[in-house]
Structures are given as C-alpha cells and as structure tokens.
C-alpha cells in the first residue's frame, strides 16, 4: 500500500453511482484499511456546497463505522468542485487543483465519459494518472475499439481501470482459490468430466425507475455481455503461474477469445423475453412497456439467455449457458457445474439419482457439492446428498475492493482493453440476429419462473 496521499477525483460526484456505491465502498475500504491516505475530490455540474459534500462523505464513512479520527482526517481534506466537465477551461482548472498521484473515477453517463476523455487527451494528465471507467465500454465492437484507442492516447493500458464490480465480489474471486488450490478439482475441470456449466443471474427486482439506463441496455448488455462473461472467463481460463495482473488478465482474454455462440449459430443459441404485469412477492409489478421512460418500440428484453462454447481443447463440446432476468418469482444467482455420468455403474447398484453437481451461490456466497450416496435402509440404494460450505463474509463491499486496487495501482480486478473488445465481439452477432427478427421476443409474467423452458 503506497504511503503517499493519493487524490481520488470523482467525476459525477452528485450521481447515483457515487451515492449508492462509490462512497459506501470507500467507507468499507477505510474501515478495513484506516492507514490509507486519500484525498477525495468530487466534481459535478450540480450545485453543491463544500459542507454538503463533506457531509455526504462523512455520512458514508460513519455508515461503514470508520474510526472517528480517520473519518475526520478524510473529511477535512475532501473538496467539491462545481464543474461542467465538458467545458475545456473548467476541466483544466479542475485538473490544476488535483494532487499527485491521481486516480480519476468516471462516475458519469457513458457518452459524457467519452467526451471528457477526448478533452483529457488535449489537456494531458499528470504522469502516472489512473483512469477508472464504468461499463458499458462502448456500445459496439467498433466504439469499444475507438474508446480504447482514445484512452491509450491519455494514459498507458496498465493505468486504465475498466470496472466490473462483480470482480470485487469475494464469491467470484473465490473461483480462483477453488480452482487452483484444490488438487481434487484440478484434473476434472474440463470437457472430459464436465457436461455443462450454467451461469445465472435471475433477480426479483424489476425496472425500479431505471428506464433511462436499462431501456437502452437490456438484459444481454446489462448482465451477460459484462458480468456473466467475466465469470465465465475466471471459470474457464487456464492455470496462472502467479497472481500478477498481466498473467491473470492475459489468461482471461485468452479464454474469451475462444468463445463463440453455441453451434456458431447466434439465433439458435439465444433467447430473449420481456416481463408483463404480475406479482413479485407482495409487490405488484406493471407491464414493462408501461413503465415510465420505456419506449415499447425499442423491444428491450428484460430476460436473456445465451449459450456459448469455447473452441479450445479444454472445453470443446461443453455448453456454457449464461442467463439473466428481471422481475422473476425467485432470485437465482449461481454457477452450476454439472458433471458427466460415471463411465460404468456396477450391476446391482441402483442408478445414481442425478449427476454430480457443484453449485456456487454468488449471493450470499456458498459452495455445495451434490453427490450420490447410500440412502438409509438398503445400502445399495442411492440418493443425492449435498455437502455445503458457507463462504466467509467479505471484508468490504465490492466497490471497496475495487477502489483499494485503483488507489494501489493494481489492475488485477479490472478488464483489459482487448477483453472489453472480446465481450462485444461475442455478443454482436446475437444482436444482429435479434435485429433481423430471427429470435422472437417472448413474454413472461412478472413473478413467474420466466418463459417456458427457461
Ligand atoms: P448519472 O446519470 O447519475 O450521472 C452522474 C452525474 O454526472 C450526475 O450528477 C450528472 O449530473 C453528472 N454529469 C452529467 N454530465 C455532466 C457534465 N457535463 N459535467 C459535470 N457533471 C455531469 O449516472 P450514474 O451515477 O447512474 O452512473 C454513472 C456511471 O456508472 C455510468 O457509466 C453507469 O453505467 C455506471 N454504473 C451505474 C450504476 C448505478 O447503479 N447507478 C451501477 C453500475 C454502473 P446531472 O444529474 O445534472 O445530469
């Protein structure tokens, strides 16, 4: 951990991301690592007094139970700068106020981020500056490439932190320990023993007033193109020699380069659906198309499924089913690994009641192994039993882990430029098939299990 003071400049300091995720994450970081020296600068076009900004920072630190003297020190040096970030002179003046080393967090709408990057290219930032960006990284392969090139004209690749907060989830990071520190699992982690892998993120939440963002994104971009393909990369990558960021990021990119829609058929490999009115628990959810801010003609999906294959020796023939949906009757956030049937079962032993499965629950974190074992009574009668381990509670919120890594200049938990481009390369043919009308937009009632057979 560096002992100099790092300036964390948050652009978009009055926005939703800063309020709901960044400041609370910072609180948990400083609670766990109170010796960190950080100066938090907020900038936004919204009018906000210095006192109001400091109160926001103080409240987040108090909420996270940061020791009082640590919180006082952080709040005292924390400043707010009302700035139109698209105004070159105002941005220049803001940069003049920052310290060194500097980490700039773009908590801005994506289109504004791109424009501010363009201005930074002209204005230049201090040597060693890190840039942290939120998804989406572009809205197509071409725009992702352009954004990458633009960013590289501002800072080098290892100073660009493309954020996917799923990578700060301890349950995702646990995949590394699980896979590479267990002799038992290492030899069976391949097509020879694994029948299929399902990575699901089904939630009970509906639109919750986020039409402005979600109606343009949809389930495929919001979850599959980003978070779920990142989980797949951790799941499927080859064994790293070390935990050094270039090693891990290189292996993830290599895994993603092998990904293709199942059967190289983006239409057959995908499904999309949209919820209609229904009851989720005790909440009445209106039809998606009647929600405020939704444009029905856009045909945005609230549920998507994409089955992919990895064209490499380790995973040839194994379907990876990625699925995500909103307004479902029950949440289901997990990775399920289904193993192949044994090559032979002795005559006289009852058949296994089901395949062996390893289930990784993402929230809250747990690992369960489902195996066939003797039932009570007849010793050769088998039943499925589950061995479960709860994962330890996270030290801090995912955004705490991520901010800590940015302040340390460690890009391990972030997405490299070529990875970001691969994510678009994988889903673009799916969008093309949807646009061509090759995949019907199905419907499901809010509160149901999703469309038939999902
Ligand atoms: P917001 O729409 O809340 O915008 C962030 C802030 O930027 C607002 O205060 C906005 O002001 C300000 N802003 C916009 N234009 C300018 C400008 N020219 N100069 C100065 N300030 C400006 O966005 P979010 O906080 O929701 O999201 C930020 C990023 O984080 C996005 O990329 C999003 O995809 C990503 N993200 C967001 C999550 C969330 O839960 N919110 C979750 C994960 C990622 P004003 O209100 O006046 O427009």
| DSSP, total strands | 19
Bound molecules: NADPH dihydro-nicotinamide-adenine-dinucleotide phosphate
CATH topology of the largest domain: Dihydrodipicolinate Reductase, domain 2
Query: Which structural category do the helix and sheet elements fall into?
Result: alpha/beta
| Name of the CATH class of the largest domain | Alpha Beta
Number of domains: 2
The appropriate CATH architecture of the largest domain is 2-Layer Sandwich
| Sequence of secondary-structure elements | EHEHHEHEHEHEHEHHEEEEEEEEEEHEHE
Instruction: Give the DSSP E fraction (strand runs of 2 or more residues).
Output: 15-25%
Low-confidence stretches: none
The pLDDT mean sits at 95
Rg over alpha carbons: 24 Å
Count the helices. How many?
11
Shape: globular
EC number: 1.1.1.49
Domain Glucose-6-phosphate dehydrogenase NAD-binding: 10-174
Pfam families: G6PD_C, G6PD_N
Pathway: Carbohydrate degradation; pentose phosphate pathway; D-ribulose 5-phosphate from D-glucose 6-phosphate (oxidative stage): step 1/3
């Amino acid at each position: 951990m560096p002992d100099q003071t790092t300036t964390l400049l948050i652009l978009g300091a009055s926005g939703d991301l800063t309020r709901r995720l960044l400041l609370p994450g910072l609180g948990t970081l400083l609670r766990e690592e109170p010796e960190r020296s950080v100066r938090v600068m907020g900038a936004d076009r919204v009018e906000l007094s210095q006192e109001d900004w400091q109160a926001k920072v103080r409240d987040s630190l108090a909420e996270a139970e940061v020791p009082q003297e640590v919180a006082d020190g952080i709040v005292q040096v924390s400043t707010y700068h009302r700035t139109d970030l698209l105004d070159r002179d105002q941005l220049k003046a803001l940069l003049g106020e920052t310290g060194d080393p500097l980490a700039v967090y773009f908590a801005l709408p994506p289109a504004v981020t791109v424009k501010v990057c363009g201005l930074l290219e002209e204005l230049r930032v201090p040597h060693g500056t890190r840039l942290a960006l939120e998804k989406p990284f572009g809205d197509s392969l071409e725009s992702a490439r352009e954004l990458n090139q633009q960013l590289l004209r501002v800072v080098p690749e290892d100073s660009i932190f493309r954020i996917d907060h799923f990578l700060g989830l301890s349950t995702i990071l646990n995949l590394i320990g699980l896979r590479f520190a267990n002799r038992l699992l290492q030899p069976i982690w391949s097509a020879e023993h694994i029948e299929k892998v399902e990575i699901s993120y089904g939630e009970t939440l509906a639109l919750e007033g986020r039409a402005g963002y979600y109606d343009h994104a949809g389930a495929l971009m919001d979850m599959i193109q980003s978070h779920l393909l990142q989980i797949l990369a951790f799941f499927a990558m080859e064994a790293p020699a070390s935990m050094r960021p270039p090693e891990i990021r290189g292996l993830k990119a290599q895994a993603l380069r092998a990904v293709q829609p199942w059967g190289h058929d983006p239409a057959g490999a995908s499904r999309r659906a949209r919820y209609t009115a229904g009851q989720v628990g005790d909440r009445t959810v209106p039809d998606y198309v009647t929600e405020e801010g939704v444009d029905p003609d856009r045909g945005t999906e609230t549920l998507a499924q994409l089955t992919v294959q990895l064209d490499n020796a380790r995973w040839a023939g194994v379907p990876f089913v990625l699925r995500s949906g909103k307004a479902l009757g029950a949440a289901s956030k997990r990775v399920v690994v289904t193993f192949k049937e044994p090559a032979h079962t002795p005559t006289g032993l009852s058949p296994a009641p089901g395949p062996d499965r390893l289930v990784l629950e993402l929230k809250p974190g747990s690992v369960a192994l489902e195996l066939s074992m003797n039932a009570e009574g007849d010793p050769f009668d088998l039943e499925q039993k589950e061995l479960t381990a709860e994962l330890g509670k996270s030290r801090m919120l995912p955004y705490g882990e991520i901010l800590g890594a940015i302040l340390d200049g460690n890009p391990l938990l972030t997405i490299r430029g070529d990875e970001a481009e691969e994510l678009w390369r994988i889903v673009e043919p799916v969008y093309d098939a949807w646009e061509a009308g090759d995949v019907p937009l199905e419907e499901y009632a809010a509160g149901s299990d999703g469309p038939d057979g999902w």
